Structure formats: structure tokens, C-alpha cells
Amino acid sequence: MQLPNYKEASKRSREKVEKEQYHLPVEDKNIGNNKTYYLKTYGCQMNEHDSENIKAILEEMGFQEIDNYEHADLVLLNTCSIRENAHNKAFGMLGRLKHLKQERPDIVIGLCGCMAQEEGVVAEILERYPQVNFVFGTHNLHRLPIILKKYLDTHKQEIEVFSKEGNLIEGMPVKRMSAYKAYVNIIYGCDKFCTYCIVPYTRGKQRSRRKEDIIKEVETLVKEGYQEVTLLGQNVNAYGKDLEEEYGMENLLEDIAKTNIPRIRFMTSHPWDFTDKMIEVIAKYPNIMKAIHLPVQSGSSRILRKMGRRYTKESYLELFDKIKRTIPDVSISTDIIVGFPGETEEDFMDTLDLVKHCRFDNAFTFIYSPRENTPASRLVDNTSLEEKEDRLQRLNQIVNQYFLENNQKKVGTVERVLVEDHNENGKTDLFGYTESNKLINFNGSADYIGKIIPVKVTETKTWSLDDEIYK
Ligand code: SAH
Ligand code: SF4
Ligand code: F3S
User: Fold this and answer.
1) At what angle do helices 249-257 and 276-284 cross, to 10 degrees?
2) What is 6-160's CATH topology?
3) From CA 389, how far away is CA 211, in angstroms rounded?
4) How far is ligand 1, taken at its centre, from the CA of residue 131, in Å?
5) Ligand 2, CB within 6 Å, residue ranges
6) Which atom from ligand 2 is nearest to the alpha carbon of 234?
7) In CATH, what class is 414-469?
8) Least C-beta-crowded within 10 Å: which of 100, 123, 158, 368?
9) pLDDT for the residue 27
10) In angstroms, what is the span from residue 203 Cα to ligand 3's centroid?
11) pLDDT of res. 466
12) Is pTM, for the whole model, over 0.70?
């Protein structure tokens, strides 16, 4: 048994991170033969991409995916720690699985992802959830076959969570969700330690993948017919800072643009490391999408300082305006937290003021949620939940108004759309995403799926656009 340890997880060493090639680490490739699995993923794109690896690893062992957990032989939850409600969802599911295990005692239950890295969560599993058969963390998903086999051999709860990030694992198998859009990790972990955030403890120190490995992966995707890659990292702008070579995000973006993959996205960008060179490269290459996610978190410089964000309202606006000036038609989205400890009405008004200036294309808004072991969780917080909910509502009203306004500007224009699939709601045949990442619903034949086609915007809703194919 190896349990998570925050002290270890907080350390940042200068030790060089080596890379290691993945190979199925168990000899028995038939562990999962005639067995099914159900994998539930919570959280961000990084977790979704981890799940794509986990699925492929399970399938290498013979397991087959099904979409109903009640009938699965193995149920695995890939969890997220970012806010309390992500926790609640996962524990709610564990509650249901507890009952299922009473009916079907041979079902195997596993938990992985960011919550597995939390001391409190693992302590609770040890105390209250003996039904959870195995637990592994974000640094050892390549060891899933060993951990699972150990449980199957011994029938004893197996917990293996590393708090120190190990080597970079290359060549893990992957079962991608889409045949047209792919996630590509470029940097793992985070060293920013924003005071409210648990990610630096659950994902370890900042480690960049080698550029050769990233470019090779994108080249393979191009050959396989992929239309879009999203480069992933908690802060992609920090790419390369931990490597010896002078090679940063701007260089990587440029080299990936040269692979001729039709669409490149990247997320997330911390405003702190956003260089002028990056702005130039984004403006220069047509296959780098002009859509930037630039989380601001707050419009109050006082709160930003307490959050440890390393920029002020003014410097954020300076960067924002520069990006808008240099990249015509760029769409910028953001994340905002309301109710950080000590946030006053005046601070909140600063946030509204910033939002009114920026008129974001999209904004994800959250009420601050105290996370175990983070510095902000130890701050005095006198604002009532009622007040925080009120602020969130006032903020959302403004945010949605700009969202609709930005969408309305598109009416009559022709957008290039990557057609994803049939529309499940049945109102229109197809859906896809524009270059600026807006959802678009329209009618057309299934032949368009997987292609980038021009579509004319005819009508807008707050959350999406309705369109017709441009002929
Ligand atoms: N690496 C990204 C953020 C990843 S988490 C960045 O730095 O921008 C996604 C979003 O969740 C954050 O941008 C923040 O707005 C929100 N978030 C993170 N921790 C939170 C907390 N403790 N309470 C509420 N929201 C939080
Ligand atoms: Fe969390 Fe800040 Fe790192 Fe983003 S940059 S993951 S908010 S610590
Ligand atoms: Fe959640 Fe972990 Fe992502 S905490 S947001 S799954 S990095």
C-alpha cells in the first residue's frame, strides 16, 4: 500500500525528468478476456485524455467497454478534485456502487485521477469504502495492469498512489474519443501554486514532453486523417521552461503549425507567461485557431495578489488588448472565481468592470471552493454563501449577454466548421465547431462528418448558432 502525501507532493526539485517507453507491464494479456469495463471520467481535458489511455490499456488486457455500469465487470472512476461538487459527484457514484457490490459481489471497483492524490480522500476510502478494490493516482496510470492484477490475485484492497511524479511515460496506447479531434499532452503538472488551487498537489511538478515526441505524435495524427489537435497543459505557455534547450511554446506552436494539421488549439494559457512572440506566431499561421482561453479569475488586483496569480487587473487588460489588436477576430474566453476569501463588493465590482471591458466570447464562472491543503483554505472567509450565489448570478447575467452579443455578430457570416457528428437532439442533422470554437447546429448529409466545410450563420441562441451549409 502506498498512500498520498502532501509534503512530498508540494516539493519541487530541479532533478531532470527522464522519459521511459511504455510496454504492457504484465505477462498475462488475458486478464480481461470476456470481461467488460465501464469508465466514468470527471474533470478537465487532461483527465479525459488520461481516460483515453486507460481505456486502451484495459483493452490491451482483453476488457471490452460498455456504457452501463450496472452490467460491467470492472467499474473505474477517473476523478477530479478541483471543486467540492466534483468530489460530491464521485462520492455519490461510489455510494451507488456500494449497493451494486451487494448485489454483485464479484464486480471490481477502482478509483483513480486527482482525488486519488488527496490524503483525505484515500483516508475516507480506507475507512468507509472497503468496496473500492483498487486505487491509483495521476503519476502511475501506466501501472494499472500491475495494480489490477495484484488485486485480482490477492483480493485485498490495493492502493498505490505516488506523490512524487516519476518519469515521463511515452508510447502509452490510446483509444481516442474522436476520429477527427485529438488531445495531445505537451506539459504535465503545474508550478504556479495559485493559492486556491489543488492541481499542483495532484499533478506534480511542471514537466514538458520532448518536442520530438510531440511533433511525431501530431505527424501521425495528420497521417491518420485527424483534422484538429488540442495541445494540453495546465499552463501550456510554460512549455519548455524545464528543458535544457532554448525552445518555448512559440517554437512548438510554429513547428506544429508546419505539420499542416488543419486546426491547432491549445489550453490553458496563464496570462503570466504569454509572450509577444506567441501572439505573433498565433497571428501568422492560419491553422492555429484564433481562440484563446485566458483565465483571469478576478478583476480585483487585491484579490489577484491573494490568489497568487502574479498579474494585476491592469496588466491583464494590457495583455488582453494587445492580443485583440494583433490578432484580428480573435475570440478570448476566460474563467472567473467569485467569493474568494475576503472578496468585498468593491472587489467584485472590479471583476464586473473587467468583464464589461473584455466582453469575453465565453466565460466559465465558479464560486470559490476551499480545497484541502491549499493556502487559501486557511484564510478567513466572512462572505455568506447567499452573497456568493448572488454575485455569481449577477456575473452570469453579464457574461451571457456578451456571449449572445458575440454570437449575434456572426449572423450572416460564413464560418469554417469541423463537422463532428449527427445531432442527438434531432432538431438538425449535424453539429460541429467553428474556428473560434462555437457550437453550430445545421442540416446536411452525413458525408460532411469529419470534414471542414463553410457554413452560413442564420440565427443565434445564447449557447449556439444555427446555420445552413454555404453553397
Ligand atoms: N490551469 C488553469 C486552470 C485549471 S482549473 C489555469 O490556471 O487557468 C480550471 C478553473 O477552475 C480555474 O481556472 C479556476 O477558475 C477554477 N478553480 C480552480 N480551483 C478552484 C477552487 N478552489 N474553487 C473554485 N474554482 C476553482
Ligand atoms: Fe491551478 Fe494556478 Fe496551476 Fe492553473 S496555474 S492549475 S489555477 S495552480
Ligand atoms: Fe480536475 Fe485534476 Fe483536471 S483536479 S480539473 S481533473 S487536473
Assistant:
1) 10
2) Rossmann fold (3.40.50)
3) 44
4) 31
5) 190, 192-194, 197, 199-200, 234-235, 270
6) 6
7) mainly beta
8) 123
9) 77
10) 8
11) 61
12) yes
Of the candidates 200, 202, 334, the residue with the CA atom closest to the CA atom of residue 268: 334
**Can you tell me which atom of ligand 1 is nearest the CA of 190?**
1
Residue nearest to atom 7 of ligand 3 (CA): 199
Residue 17 and residue 166: Cα distance in Å, rounded? 7
* pLDDT confidence of residue 465: 61
* Predicted local confidence at residue 44, as pLDDT: 95
pLDDT at 471: 44
Question: For position 467, what pLDDT does the model report?
Answer: 60
Q: Is 147 in the pocket of ligand 3 (CB under 6 A)?
A: no
Q: Which neighbouring-strand residues pair with 285?
A: none
Cα–Cα distance for residue pair 353/209, rounded to 1 Å: 39
Q: What is the DSSP letter of 235?
A: T
Centroid of ligand 2 to alpha carbon of 60 (angstroms): 34
Ligand 1 atom with minimal separation from the 194 CA: 7
Nearest CA-CA partner of 75 in 111, 113, 126, 118: 111
* Atom 2 of ligand 2, nearest CA residue: 194
In degrees and rounded to multiples of 5, residue 345 shows phi and psi of -60, -35
pLDDT one-digit tens code per residue, 257-315? 999 999 999 999 999 989 999 999 999 999 999 999 999 999 999 999 999 999 999 99
For residue 263, give the 3-state DSSP assignment: strand
Cβ 198 vs Cβ 374: under 8 Å: yes
Q: Which residues of the chain have pLDDT under 70?
A: 462-471
Q: Are 183 and 158 in contact (CB under 8 A)?
A: no
Residue spans per domain, the chain: 6-160, 168-408, 414-469
pLDDT at 300 (0 to 100): 98
Using the mean position of ligand 2's atoms as its centre, give its distance from the Cα of residue 268 in Å: 9
Q: Is the Cβ atom of 369 under 6 angstroms away from ligand 3?
A: no
Q: Is 80 in the pocket of ligand 3 (CB under 6 A)?
A: yes
Pocket test for ligand 3, best of 80, 87, 88, 190 (most atoms within 8 A of CB): 80
Closest residue by Cα to atom 5, ligand 2, is: 192
Instruction: Return the CATH number of the domain spanning residue range 168-408.
Output: 3.80.30.20
**DSSP β-ladder status, 19-21 and 64-65:** unpaired
User: Are both 168-408 and 414-469 of the same fold?
Assistant: no
Query: How far is the CA of 314 from the CAs of 318, 320, 342, in angstroms?
Result: 6, 10, 21
Query: How far apart, in whole angstroms, are the C-alpha atoms of residue 358 and residue 373?
Result: 33
